[in-house]
Amino acid sequence: MKKIIINMKESTKKHFSIFILLLLFAIVACNHIPDNLFWENTLNDVESYMDNYPDSALATLNDLKKAQLIGTNESVKINQRQEAHFCLLLTIAKDKTYTPIVSDSIINIACDYYLHSRGIDDYDMARAHFYLGQVNFALNEYEKAATNYYKALAIIKPYIYHKGQKSQHSLQKYYKLTGLIYGNIAKTLFKNGLYDKTLKMSKDAYHCYAQAKDSTNMIYSLRNIGRDLSMINEYDSAKTYFERAIDFANKMHYATIANSLFLDLSQFYYLFGKKDYDSA
Predict the structure, then answer these.
(1) Which side of the chain, N or C, has fewer Cβ within a 10 Å radius?
(2) Share of the chain above pLDDT 70, in %
């Protein structure tokens, strides 16, 4: 029965993305919308629901590819900026849905485009380098990943310090991206055993998520800070951060996250033991 329900959900998701594409094509055909405007509207729509519905975003982008709208003689015309946006969104959707990525060729199309359009799409250029770092990390290319995370950080940081030039909504998305960058730099440092540096990056990530009002990532950052503190033998402080994360999750009524954090706290006690903890 469970399997049938899962299959029904997958079928519904697939039919929904196909319906959206057919609807868009119908609008283009009936109203003679220019090709570039069609692409602009479609990609912006995908962008709008990417965070909340990454599976649907990926399905729509894959359907666009299956329809051979890119790279064929009969394709709907797409300019370089839109192609870069498509490649960036496809990589983001795969990253968010934990879909295996076997090559950096797609995201490099976006990076190459944004490299030659500085001052226009710097936010997207920072995103492109960040997600290139994500691809590098997935391919076990950890040094390349760190290099691209730091490139993304160098691009995005000046925008954080010039707050007056942006709306509050725009500023929040810059802070969220910066938080993601710091958090994943911390991930590479942690993997290399550089726990003091990892702790600083995790705290920077938390600060950025707080500015972005991103409660979910704030909670995970508190958990990460606790993890980092435990690795440098600051057990009391580590326990405090794990508990803060759990309290925050409960306050926000994030039951699933709270349950996972209880497991993290249990693992903390298991790894370091009551004896080690009492002697700290």
Answers:
(1) N
(2) 76
